[in-house]
Amino acid sequence: TMAHSKALLVLENFIGGKFVPCSSYINSYNPSTGDVYCRVPDSGKEEVEAAVKAAKDAFPIWSSKSPLERSQILNKLADLIERDLEVFAQAESKDQGKTITFARTVDIPRAVYNFRFFASSILHHTTECTEMATMGCVHYTSRAPVGVAGLISPWNLPLYLLTWKIAPAIACGNTVVAKPSEMTSVTAWMMCKLLEKAGVPHGVVNVVFGTGAKAGEALVCHPDVPLISFTGSTLTAQRITEKSAPHCKRLSLELGGKNPAIVFDDADLTQCIPTTLRSSFANQGEICLCTSRIFVQRGIYSEFLKRFVAEAKKWKVGNPSDPTVDVGALISKEHLEKVRSYVKKAQAEGARVLCGEGVDSLALPTGNQKGYFMLPTVIAEVKDESCCMQEEIFGPVTCVVAFDTEEEVIERANGVKYGLAATVWSSSVGRVHRVAQRLQSGLVWTNCWLVRDLNLPFGGMKASGIGREGAKDSYEFFTEVKTITIKH
Ligand code: NAD
User: Fold this and answer.
1) For residue 384, is pLDDT > 60?
2) Measuring from each residue's beta carbon to the nearest atom of ligand 1, which residues come in under 6 Å?
3) Using CA atoms in the order 115, 228, 471, 60, what is the torsion angle rounded to 10 degrees?
4) Which architecture characterizes domain 259-446 according to CATH?
5) Is 349 annotated in the active site?
6) CA 448–ligand 1 middle distance (angstroms)
7) Is 336 left (phi over 0), alpha (psi -120 to 50) or beta?
8) How far is the CA of 487 from the centre of ligand 1 (A)?
9) CATH 3.40.309.10 domain extents, the chain
10) Domain with CATH 3.40.605.10 in the chain
11) CA-CA distance, 251 to 256, in Å (whole number)?
12) CA distance 373 to 395
């Protein structure tokens, strides 16, 4: 009804510096209540065409600005998002289901930092030069922005991951068309409202909202978008690779993981247990870097399991806007069903569910009865070849298994198609180096998790991705290099 739809938040595309309504819309749900609360443009070819045109038109002016001018604008945008941090955090929590605490302390601060970081790093890149004295020549490299960058981001860390792409793309002088996840579009739309005030010229950042199949694919197939930076699932990445192949596009693909934690018997469990709980259940387990296979050395296996399960049971699940809540809602009803189905499959295969789904009862506040909640779930005695140990579950579910030797655990940890992140827990310096060298993983954390220096490469091996992003890597991805030879 009209009265009902009036109460909904209605988003608009942001094209050429203006908010533009769309001819059709899709519903967006509040995961913690199950209610439709927002209408998201269902953009397609036409909207993407307009956005790419605006981005192309803005390119000559934006790309000719000095890095310092662009840096100042990025810093201003960071200040404005930071000024509105609380409003952004509340919006992200409502839209995504994540806890307000996580949005306040991780998502939005990191979005702010992404702009500050690339505002700074863009000022410090150098190019290469070599001399060829016998030929009387010097060679040097020069880098220039590529053009219109297509940026496609997922729903788990909405503004955090979108700005991780927008910031380096525009810092390098590209203009962009971004397509956030249709399930979490609100904070991107809010950010658009700040662009003009920050001094971002019209058309430099365009955002089209909509589904992957329609809006995303139109962007991937657009001939005037030479570069796509994508974060999402491996399946979608395969489709994007196929669709972009006729245009030979440059792709950066940040994909899924099936990340192991390896706990040796000399690990400091007072640090390992709380960190591994976080690495398993933070953001409802909906982080590509989350641990979902915990290998524990036989001698400490039962002690680890006992302490880990006891602590997991203390995680409070409930209304995400309650600051004392540790686990919010999962993104959608479908996703919740999918995550639950993994627990059922594990049980059917004879694994033991030690806490959580199907074992403990979940009491929810009255307003959240229809939300997509699930208890942190720990599964033991799962076979390595089980789908729970092979496939990305992307929810608050983690498997704990025992191992005997270093050699054995390296092989088992590497025995999946993914290779994004691993954690190694041991107090032996030699061992952590040895194991880290041999893990097939783009990132290895020893005795910690999620400690990031944005200067260094981020990305996955095997089915976890192609390419790396970070200060230097993003600069290289978002620029085209040329070698120039001068004879004197
Ligand atoms: P997804 O692949 O379903 O969607 C990601 C984005 O791609 C969305 O914006 C979606 O609309 C769009 N999309 C879908 N189909 C498309 C198509 N055919 N063409 C163009 N765009 C299309 O992923 P998701 O479910 O939103 O996110 C969860 C996944 O993302 C998990 O696999 C997770 O591991 C991964 N992820 C990886 C990283 C990383 O940095 N490696 C970070 C976060 C999430």
Assistant:
1) yes
2) 152-156, 161, 179, 181-182, 211-213, 216-217, 220, 231-233, 236, 239-240, 254-257, 288, 392, 394, 420, 460, 465
3) -70
4) 3-Layer(aba) Sandwich (3.40)
5) no
6) 26
7) alpha
8) 48
9) 259-446
10) 9-255+464-487
11) 16
12) 10
Query: Per-residue pLDDT averaged across 96-123, rounded?
Result: 98
Residue to mutate (ligand 1; options 288, 458, 461; most atoms within 8 A of CB): 288
Ligand 1 centre and the CA of 234: distance in Å? 8
In angstroms, the Cα distances linking 150 to 116, 153, 244, 320, 479 are 21, 10, 11, 32, 14
* pLDDT the model gives residue 6: 56
Give Cα separations from 313 to 310, 355, 399 (angstroms): 5, 7, 15
Residue 7: which pLDDT band, with cuts at 50, 70 and 90?
A: confident
Alpha-carbon dihedral of residues 380, 383, 384, 387, nearest 10 degrees?
Answer: -90
pLDDT exceeds 80 at position 3: no
Chain mean position to CA 299: 36
| CATH architecture for residues 9-255+464-487 | 3-Layer(aba) Sandwich (3.40)
Determine which residue's CA is closest to atom 28 belonging to ligand 1: 232
- Residue 87 sits at φ, ψ, to 5 deg, of -65, -40
- Give residue-wise pLDDT tens across range 311-332: 999 999 999 999 999 999 999 9
Residue 24 half-sphere exposure toward CB, CA atoms < 13 A: 10
